[in-house]
Amino acid sequence: MSPRRTWRPLLAAAVAAALSLVGGGATPATAAAPQPVYAPPGGVADPGVVQHDGNFFVFATGSRAPAYRGDTASGPWVDLGAVLRTLPGWAASGAVWAPDAVRTPAGWVLYYSAPAKDLDGQRCIGVARSTAIGGPYDPVGDTPLVCPGSAHGADDAVPGRPVSAAGVIDPAPFQDAEGRRFLLYKTQQTPSSIRMLRVDDAGTGWLGNPSGELVRSDGIIENPQLRQRGSTFVLFASRYGYDNCSYATVYLTSTDKWDFHGKAQSSLLTTAGTGICGPGGADVVPALVDDEQRIFLHGWVCGGTAPCRQQPDGSLPADARRALYAAVFRWDGATPRVGAFL
Questions:
Q1: InterPro entries under this entry (predicted)?
Q2: Which DSSP state fits 330?
Q3: Which in 55, 159, 265, 308 has the greatest CB count within 10 A?
């Protein structure tokens, strides 16, 4: 069991570190900044995190959904390899983005997005199932769960999507206080949107209802995660370009889980506030310590494990990769608070 972490807000020193990350040269920043808890050579991007049986499991972007297991939030971490054993017939390749898993009466269910055949590189969302959290997972059925225009026989046609030819990515499960299950996801291209679909108790099929749009942005909004705090719903999302230090984590609140349109957007994790280059893809899970939680996210590192610095043209150095960070997290009513990084 991990030791109890003393709560404290993000250190002011991180601000100084962050100032060196934007608009500088191609070398890593040297000011104090949080260290990643895991930074393998291939990187860890878009972490979907589950705490189960005294371990943390991270599902990440990569070939057939790579996964990792940590004894504590700060590690040590073990590479479990690709957990999606086979590909569905509709998938053009195994280049999976942003998988996430949840336990349901059907077992362990993995949601993932993959490029679909005959869709010009756009993606659909599929479902796979396993008897163990670490897999292997096998596709459920021969059709995707979500695909624009019901391509490949998908249940959800993504009605009213901002860009008709755009695919769907970033699936994230949610269960409300009444036990009803849902799946959130993002529509690709801009304008972009976050949508939600009601699914069955098994989490593997829909209930015949179309998905609904929760929020739309003229720019980029993605990586949704939804949490319920009493009568308030809190939507976490990533904003701006993922491939530089502008990437950030924000949150919106609403008393209607189906409608975040027009709600104020508040910053939760930014480069300026953390010292991490592009802190995004956040997920919140229970800690191994009672009454505590952890927030996991990714950020860009260069030259080892130091936060990347943007080059003069705004791009990142060639050796940039995303690494896994973790921090203490708590709720102040329905307001999320991030404390010390691990």
A1: GH43_arabinanases, Glyco_hydro_43, Glyco_hydro_beta-prop_sf, TAT_signal
A2: E
A3: 308
